[in-house]
User: Fold this.
Amino acid sequence: MLEAIDVHADALKRAALTAGPAAPVPNYPKWTVHDLVTHIASVHCAAIGLVLDRPLRPTPPPDWADVLGWWDGQRLALREALVRNPGSPWTGRLAHATAIHRLDAESALAQPVPARLSPEFAPGAGELVCAVVLPGSAGCRSGDRLPAF
Assistant:
């Protein structure tokens, strides 16, 4: 799953750079690509704190170029934290979150990419929804949650 984070983060970044920071994200009508990249960088930052059991409060920079650099740093730190903590439940969750936001970034392109996720990758998406998106909902177990941003 570490490789999946890398693959989807790289594709997300390519799409974000191609679309540009002001491009609207159709899946999130109030967001621009800048907002999307700031969000995924903040998620990666908060997840580092959860994996290392040291809560972190993301403080994204406002400038687009700085946000991209900050996100690159968060991606590298997240990968290192997950490598140091093999078996962390956050590895799969973050792979799926990054993949979904990759699709969001690609939807902002002038010519959206027809992307598909492999069938082998799909089963963990339900766990992501239950553990992160809908904690406490019927049928979902509560647990560590990423803070709302």
Remarks:
- Residues 128-149 have pLDDT under 50 and may be disordered.
- The first strand starts at residue 24 and ends at 25.
